[in-house]
Here is the input.
Amino acid sequence: MSNYDFDEILMGISSILQSFQRFGVHLGLDRIQTLLNQWDNPHHNTPIIHVGGTNGKGSVCAYLSSILTEAGYQVGRYTSPHLIDWTERICINNQPISPSELERILIEIKNSIDVNQEIPTQFEVITAAAWIYFYRQNVDLAIIEVGLGGRLDATNVCDRPLATVITSLSREHWQQLGPTIKDIAGEKAGIFKSNCPVIMGQVPDEVKPIFKSHINALTCPYVWVEPAKYLDNNSVIYQDIQYHLPLLGKMQLNNSALAIETIKVLQQKGWKITDNHIKQGIKKTQWLGRVQWIKWKNYSLLIDGAHNPAAAKLLRDYVDTLDKSIIWIVGILSTKEHDKVFQELLRKDESLYLVPVPDHSTANPGDLAKLAQEICPSLTQIKTKETVFSALEEATQEQQSDQIIVIAGSLYLIGHLLGHLPSNVSKGLNN
Here is the structure.
């Protein structure tokens, strides 16, 4: 297939999905259940692991997919959002669905929708496409990431997952999920199912009773996971398993431990997964756009989609280990908590470039500049640029030997950057 044909198909995919975007974010299960029922409920025939939480969901899904692939299983993986194109969301054994296959399924779905009923949202349509693809490909199981919240998320249509994971919790998407962190915890716990094992990550003490209440009410077997511990040279240990972590940042101690505990649930159910499969699967894991080093015009850049205060803190914790001054290039969506993100990221004597997030509801760089000045007046400079690339051009020219350039604030910004790099560059340098 020529590049022209490939791009044409991707444009066709975007066009189909764009036609459903006008229905916005509309939580609820009725539309997705109606849609899947028209396709003989493929989700009822695919065992799943359901992964919810605030940060770390994608990394946990990536670890699980890689481990199970290493063990010889046919593994579906559904995640969101994508960085470069829609095919990334739907993978089997870490390989994205082909653009032609995704376009074909989307056309089938669109043609099957009864216009006299409530029209599904964009997320519901792409979620249905994932279920249909996994069923047709006869996967052994699918790793399914919650899109937004949990209780009313379109992925929450399976009544008996093999296991349910909560990675972390912070005040994210409060506009849809409720104003307090306790409200959000209740929505996240909505993915728990009767007697289905729950694997819990690190959550604030104030919401632990909420999760425990749901667990007890549903008589779920559960485990509260403590993070793995560093040994040396990115080698870590969790319980009796020692392994190499390819993904950077302290948060991966928690994420990898969650994956291992989830695999232990499968082992108890008779799945043939050895400790060596776990070690090799984790070692081979890739997850783009999260604490990742890349090359741009021979310059080393650190990129991370840190888009909420908790993720920004984790990124700050990592860059603090580098003993370098930071030149930040930041773009943030209008819906995020800009002040809290800046409070976590910015420190005195650092430099900040603010850019828009293309093709999304971006915060105004000028407004962000005023806010950053209020929050961290000791920054050496604050500048606004029209694009991430114009910011990079200037930042790389001013960079000193004791400085690193970090691009952050939105996964969509990171995706825009990676989408304009050669594929061998966008795959990253961490491994």
About this structure: The radius of gyration is 21 Å. The chain has two domains: 3-283, 292-426. The longest strand covers residues 163-168.
